[in-house]
């Protein structure tokens, strides 16, 4: 690998200061990224634990492991924790926080104190969520459908609503910080067309965070107010319309899926380019498709409501718009595939995750076509088909990308190398476990098993057993990286500055980087993904051979 | 395939074939796309694996290619959209002369009432090869009426009617699921739809009725004193309800609405909202005074006053329903397997 | 994308005297100022969508329950609402005057204008309080004691408004104006801070970004009210 | 590149400020009076037109959107309004075509 680490004991963002205070009061985007990493990992394992209990309960048709109410709380809080406290902050708040300033060549995000504030807001939201769980939990489903949530559920709806309301602002502030940073803080020479596609993906994500999140915030305010004060905005008994809640809820919560998947697409783009040693095929199409996904993503929300009682005409409009958003996603997949063509492909662990992402996202995306087709939707809506579909996107897509990115940038983040063999094994286990968990659920869904069922007719058992078996493997696959990442922090080999010989400004500084990222202000004179130039020294060896 | 390992749901309605056909088309299309991408990825990954001294060959983008793989998927997507829309439209347009069943959902049971008067709980008996229209509402939260074998699903909302229909093609017992999460016993809110041969069905129908639903409605209509204003001779203080169902109605505020089930329902529960032109706002609301079942009966009665627009009882083959027979025999929930 | 200029800013980096307010990670004051300005505008975009959800709910129910909303709207004192609109407009004027004052080195005028802004803000909240008290006395606050019986619908003197639909109006009224008032309170907090900064002489003709940013927020709150006033107070006022 | 001070663009911003202020007060008065006339469906149209004019005045002159030589800020505003319109328009696409009680 190209660069040797000249001075292992250089001052970097990790060893510059010590002590709790230096972390809790830091305004360094890299340290805040690590704070986020720790907190979202915590919530990931809470959510994962709930998932495991759900799968165990569904091992048998009868309801025998937990009570029905407990089960309902489990899937509700699994959803809320995973969506609002893990997936939405995962890549943006950890990898994005760490990398966006470095990739554009800035010393920090535009508003470092607001960045720290966003983490504290997240923590406050998280503590509220934990408090909600500890005092009894909530059983509305993560979707909070009214009038069940406002007038019938007797669990901690208000607490959960407030927790998510608060956490939403952390997401807004992160997005705001990114947009301003990308516009205002780019290094000299870093033009828009030289930006890594990771940045484009985060820019698109930020648009959704900024303009979508406030709508769910106000919707939750209405739910909380309605529940606390017995208003009638969503309650048909008092003249309200429960479908209005669904409109407002999905106006955010559908684009929220793109908050999860777009950054993951950005990560995968970086990885594919690096390990195929190539420029991304059709850079501008990949970049613009991110923006297109963000914009079209706002126009399709009512495809969650085709059988909810909306008008047939509205259903037609939303169905056709849903296909519009599928085009840019397809364009991305084709461009990634074309990027591999005539590459020089390495099979390091991040690349394995990227391959996994490609496969799982393809399946997840294509099953989205089924759900957007009105005729099929009325059969598979609210069945396990939907569950399988969105897990393929949100776990198969987003989490694969997140793990791939963690491996890819771990040497930069920690300054240590992770054990490659274990990492490849983990990638394989996750891929197999994931498919075994969720593929049977497509069949289950089409056969007719509804979601959120605590017990089910016995003919569904075999598929459920397969799914539970897969979940066990998947859980193991997720534990492994955590173990060897922690291990590598102490025992891993020191990482060189650019272990992958990758393009991108973040690799042109030390590993781990100094507090202000660059010892000298970078000036960009090259295009993104200039792997031909990076690999040029190797090319000089070629004439000797031939 | 196996009893405990089904790979395909039973197919027991006219809609099932339509949905399955589209589903199979989608499976083929997406299967081909998946294969295309997987084969390309695997082939490239193997063919262009790193070899020492063989650098990657930089290929810039290609606009013709980008256009190709934007336009072709788009065209395919539009085909899927149109096909899906057609199937959906069919399933959302109940035939005019369908047998009507009123469904009231509540936490956590299904209450079904045939237009002929039979009441059932968590079971729905229907004849084979006849259109059945479900007029559904909920007493509390949102539920969803889902019969996988019919490929039919519709959310059931409180405060209004939603409508669904099906035409069963194969006798048997089929799952009825609630698919909209509705609280503790959501997964217990299941039942059976029992499709019967016409003869069997006639036999079943001959028991357990308290008279047609519209007759019940007529009784309520007079008990609540509705008749004093809504007189048949058009001289009353309220509109004459004869023939009103299915017709456009001019409202006092200048709008025109079609008198469908939802309109009739709203007029009972919130008479001021869409008052008929030329009448005083004197009708009191019956919100809270009548149960969902009574509203259904009233609606069924008003509909029966419009023979042209057809209501379930008026034109279905006369089924003499001797009063007094007990409720139809309730069977233990079958294990989801077909009866025959 | 519109700005290809940000990169150029850094090239001319580190010129001129160092302002103590220039944060370490910005190359120039201009870059810092532009970043703050853009950040505030984006934040206001968030705020627009935050209120947007309410406006959407309002729109749907207003179309559905037009008569009931008209009756309920008529029960609010439009003169108080109109006065409040004028008060907020005046406060917006004093904000721009304060910024003009600092740009032209008129410190006393700036402080006076800031104080005036806050006074207008307090007057607004006071009038709002009177309005709320009236509604409370009339039992128009949604909840157990809500009552809106026998109120005729404007234009249909023979028909009474449906109290439950009027209650939805008042629920939206209180949430929308309440959230707006909350923004006013936050605005007063920001202006208290700006006032102390101004008092300490921290703002100069060259550096007064906080004042501009705070002003943007204040104007935005004014704009929200400009829409709330006709939508809530003036639905159906004609006799 | 960006606006330094407003005075760079106009010699006496005070005139503009007071003119806008007067226009805003006038708009308030007009909207209050217009509501008392029976214009049918146009009542809402008039009210919203006046409100939008006032909002534009505040945004363009008080918030200096007019003088923001950078188009980016305008883009932020337009993007936001676009999505706000999407929220309302597509919701109405359902409500306007639905016969609901």
Features:
heterotetramer, B: 340 residues, alpha+beta, Immunoglobulin-like, Cytochrome Bc1 Complex, Chain D, domain 2, 3 domains, five-stranded mixed beta sheet, 8 helices, 12 strands, disordered C terminus, C: 239 residues, mainly alpha, Four Helix Bundle (Hemerythrin (Met), subunit A), two-stranded antiparallel sheet, 7 helices, 2 strands, 3% strand
Low-confidence stretches of chain C: 1-16
CATH class of the largest domain in chain B: Mainly Beta
- Report the principal-axis shape of chain C: elongated
* Number of separate helices of chain B: 8
Strand order of the largest sheet of chain C: 1-2
Proportion in helices of chain B: 25-40%
Q: For the residues shown, what is the average pLDDT of chain C? A: 88
Number of strands of chain B: 12
Question: What is the radius of gyration of chain B?
Answer: 26 Å
Distance between the termini of chain C: 52 Å
Number of helices of chain C: 7
| CATH architecture field of the largest domain in chain B | Sandwich
The figure for the number of domains of chain C is 1
Structure commentary:
The complex is a heterotetramer of chains A (546), B (340), C (239) and D (101). Chain B has helices spanning 14-47, 63-92, 198-205, 213-223, 226-229, 261-269, 292-304, 312-315, and strands at 99-106, 109-114, 119-121, 123-127, 131-138, 143-147, 152-156, 162-167, 172-178, 191-196, 248-250, 256-258. Chain B is an alpha+beta fold and 340 residues long. Chain C is an all-alpha fold and 239 residues long. Chain C has one domain (40-233): Four Helix Bundle (Hemerythrin (Met), subunit A) (Up-down Bundle). Chain C has helices at residues 6-11, 29-64, 66-74, 78-103, 107-137, 163-199, 209-233; strands spanning 152-153, 156-160. In chain C, a hairpin with a 2-residue loop joins β1 and β2. In chain C, α2 packs antiparallel against α6, α3 packs across α6 (163-199) and α4 (78-103) packs antiparallel against α5 (107-137). The radius of gyration of chain C is 22 Å and the shape is elongated. The termini of chain C are far apart. Chain D is mainly α and 101 residues long. Chain D starts with 12 loop residues before the first helix and ends in a 6-residue tail after the last helix. Classes of the chains: A mainly alpha (546), B alpha+beta (340), C mainly alpha (239), D mainly alpha (101).
């Amino acid at each position: 690998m190209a660069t040797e680490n000249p001075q292992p004991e250089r001052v970097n963002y990790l060893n510059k200061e010590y002590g709790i205070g230096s972390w809790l009061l830091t305004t360094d985007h890299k340290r805040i990224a690590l704070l986020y990493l720790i907190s979202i990992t915590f919530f990931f394992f809470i959510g994962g634990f709930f998932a495991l209990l759900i799968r165990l309960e569904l091992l048998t048709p009868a309801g025998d492991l937990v009570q029905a109410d407990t089960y309902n709380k489990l899937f509700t809080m699994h959803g809320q924790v995973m969506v609002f406290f893990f997936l939405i902050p995962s890549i943006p708040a950890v990898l994005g926080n760490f990398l966006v300033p470095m990739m554009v060549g800035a010393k920090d995000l535009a508003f470092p104190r607001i960045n720290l504030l966003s983490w504290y807001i997240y923590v406050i939201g998280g503590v509220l969520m934990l408090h909600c769980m500890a005092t009894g939990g909530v059983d509305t489903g993560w979707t909070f459908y009214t009038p069940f949530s406002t007038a019938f559920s007797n669990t901690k709806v208000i607490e959960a609503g407030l927790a998510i309301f608060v956490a939403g602002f952390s997401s807004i502030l992160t997005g705001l910080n990114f947009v301003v940073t990308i516009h205002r803080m780019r290094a000299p020479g870093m033009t828009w067309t030289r930006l890594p596609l990771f940045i484009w993906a985060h820019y698109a994500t930020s648009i959704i965070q900024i303009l979508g999140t406030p709508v769910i915030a106000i919707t939750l305010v209405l739910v909380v107010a309605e529940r606390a004060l017995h208003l009638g905005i969503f309650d048909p008994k008092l003249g309200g319309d429960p479908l209005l809640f669904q409109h407002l809820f999905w106006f955010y919560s559908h684009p929220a899926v793109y908050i999860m998947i777009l950054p993951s697409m950005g990560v995968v783009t970086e990885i594919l380019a690096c390990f195929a040693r190539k420029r991304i095929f059709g850079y501008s199409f990949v970049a613009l498709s991110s923006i297109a996904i963000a914009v079209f993503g706002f126009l399709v929300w009512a495809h969650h409501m085709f059988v909810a009682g909306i008008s047939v005409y509205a259903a037609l409009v939303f169905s056709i718009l849903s296909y519009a958003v599928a085009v840019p996603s397809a364009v991305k997949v084709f461009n990634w595939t074309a990027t591999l063509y005539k590459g020089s492909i390495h099979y390091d662990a991040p690349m394995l995750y990227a391959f996994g992402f490609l496969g799982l996202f393809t399946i997840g995306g294509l099953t989205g076509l089924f759900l957007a087709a009105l005729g099929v939707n009325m059969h598979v809506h609210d069945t396990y088909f939907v569950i399988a579909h969105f897990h393929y996107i949100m776990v198969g897509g987003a989490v694969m990308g997140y793990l791939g990115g963690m491996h890819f940038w771990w040497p930069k983040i920690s300054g240590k190398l992770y054990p490659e063999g274990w990492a490849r094994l983990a990638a394989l286990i996750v891929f197999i476990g994931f498919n075994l968990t969720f593929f049977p659920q497509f069949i289950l869904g089409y056969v007719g098993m509804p979601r959120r069922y605590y017990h089910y007719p016995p003919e569904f058992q075999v598929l459920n057993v397969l799914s539970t078996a897969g979940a066990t493997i998947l859980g193991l696959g997720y534990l492994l990286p955590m173990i060897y990442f922690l291990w590598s922090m102490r025992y891993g080999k020191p990482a060189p500055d650019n272990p992958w010989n990758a393009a991108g400004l973040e690799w042109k500084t030390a590993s781990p980087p100094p507090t202000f990222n660059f010892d000298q202000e970078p000036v960009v004179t090259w295009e993104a993904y200039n792997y031909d130039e990076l690999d040029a020294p190797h090319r000089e060896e070629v004439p000797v051979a031939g | 395939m196996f009893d405990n390992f089904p790979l395909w749901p039973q197919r027991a309605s006219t809609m099932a074939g339509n949905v399955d056909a589209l589903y199979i088309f989608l499976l083929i299309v997406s299967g081909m796309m998946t294969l295309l991408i997987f084969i390309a990825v695997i082939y490239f990954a193997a063919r262009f694996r790193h070899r020492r001294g063989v650098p990657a060959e930089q290929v810039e983008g290609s606009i013709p290619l980008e256009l190709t793989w934007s336009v072709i998927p788009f065209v395919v997507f539009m085909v899927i959209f149109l096909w899906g829309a057609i199937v959906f439209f069919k399933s959302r347009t109940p035939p005019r002369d369908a047998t009507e069943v009123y469904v009231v959902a509540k936490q956590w049971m299904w209450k079904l009432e045939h237009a002929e008067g039979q009441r059932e709980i968590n079971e729905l008996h229907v004849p084979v090869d006849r259109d059945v229209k479900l007029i559904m509402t909920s007493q509390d939260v949102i539920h969803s009426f889902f019969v996988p074998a019919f490929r039919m699903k519709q959310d059931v909302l409180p405060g209004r009617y939603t409508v669904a229909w099906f035409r069963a093609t194969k006798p048997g017992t089929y799952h009825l699921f609630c698919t909209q999460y509705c609280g503790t016993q959501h997964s217990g809110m299941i039942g059976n739809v029992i499709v019967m041969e016409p003869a069997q069905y006639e036999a079943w129908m001959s028991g357990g009725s308290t008279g047609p639903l519209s007759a019940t409605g007529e009784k309520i209509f007079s008990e609540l004193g509705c008749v004093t204003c809504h007189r048949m001779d058009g001289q009353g203080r309220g509109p004459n309800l004869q023939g009103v169902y299915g017709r456009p109605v001019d409202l006092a505020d200048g709008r025109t609405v079609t008198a469908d089930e939802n309109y009739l329902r709203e007029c009972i529960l919130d008479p001021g909202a869409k008052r008929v032109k030329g009448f005083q706002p004197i009708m009191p609301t019956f919100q809270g005074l009548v149960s969902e079942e009574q509203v259904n009966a009233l609606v069924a009665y008003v509909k029966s006053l419009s023979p042209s627009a057809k209501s379930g009882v008026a034109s279905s083959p006369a089924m003499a329903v001797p009063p007094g027979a007990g409720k139809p025999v309730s069977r233990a929930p079958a294990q989801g397997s077909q009866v025959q | 994308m519109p700005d290809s200029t940000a990169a150029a800013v850094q090239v001319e980096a580190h010129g001129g005297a160092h302002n103590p307010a220039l944060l370490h990670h910005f190359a120039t004051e201009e870059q810092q100022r532009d970043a703050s300005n853009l950040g505030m505008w984006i934040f206001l975009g968030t705020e627009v969508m935050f209120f947007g959800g309410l406006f959407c709910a309002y729109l749907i129910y207003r179309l559905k329950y037009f008569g009931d909303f008209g009756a309920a709207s008529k029960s609010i004192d439009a003169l108080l609402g109109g006065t409040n609109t004028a008060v907020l407009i005046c406060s917006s004027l004093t904000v721009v005057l304060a910024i003009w004052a600092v740009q032209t080195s008129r410190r006393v005028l700036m402080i006076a204008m800031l104080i005036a802004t806050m006074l207008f803000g307090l007057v607004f909240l006071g009038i709002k309080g009177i309005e709320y008290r009236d509604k409370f006395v009339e039992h128009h606050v949604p909840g157990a004691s809500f009552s809106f019986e026998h109120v005729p619908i404007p234009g249909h003197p023979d028909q009474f408004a449906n109290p439950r639909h009027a209650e939805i109006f008042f629920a939206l009224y209180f949430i929308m104006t309440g959230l707006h008032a909350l923004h006013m309170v936050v605005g007063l907090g920001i202006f208290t801070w700006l006032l102390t900064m101004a008092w300490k002489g921290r703002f100069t003709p060259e550096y007064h970004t906080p004042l501009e940013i705070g002003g943007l927020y204040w104007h935005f709150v004014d704009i929200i009210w400009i829409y709330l006033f006709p939508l809530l107070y003036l639905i159906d006022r004609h006799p | 590149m960006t606006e330094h001070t407003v005075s760079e663009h106009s010699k006496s911003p005070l005139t503009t400020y007071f003119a806008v202020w007067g226009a805003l007060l006038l708009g308030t008065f007009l909207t209050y009076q217009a509501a008392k006339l029976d214009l049918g469906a146009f009542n809402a149209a008039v009210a919203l037109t006046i409100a939008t004019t006032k909002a534009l005045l505040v945004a363009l002159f008080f918030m200096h959107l007019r003088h923001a030589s950078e188009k980016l800020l305008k883009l932020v505003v337009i993007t936001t309004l676009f999505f706000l319109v999407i929220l309302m328009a597509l919701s109405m696409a359902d409500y306007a075509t639905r016969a609901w009680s």
